[in-house]
Amino acid sequence: xxxxxxxxxxxxxxxxxxxxxxxxxxxxxxxxxxxxxxxxxxxxxxxxxxxxxxxxxxxxxxxxxxxxxxxxxxxxxxxxxxxxxxxxxxxxxxxxxxxxxxxxxxxxxxxxxxxxxxxx
Length: 120
Description:
Oligomer: single chain
Structural class: mainly beta
CATH superfamily: Acid Proteases
């Protein structure tokens, strides 16, 4: 699929006034979302765990993750956020998309709302 981007805001769930907003690359191959670690630290997000992730080249890398509020396209969800390398591009993963009923339309490379979130 080509590149789809969306403006999203990440907010520290423990300090709701502190947030980070930017243009995120929608990555349908990524389960979790990612923000540069320095941006997460700036808004007070603390790591709560570490897990191994498989990168696009097939290699494995361990990243810390925290928990945040995620807002985009008028929708709100919460979930894991990976502490990426400083300066890395923010990524919006499929968990955030699916949790609010948004899918990627590969034909025209846009995000589209489902009529309902599947609960079956």
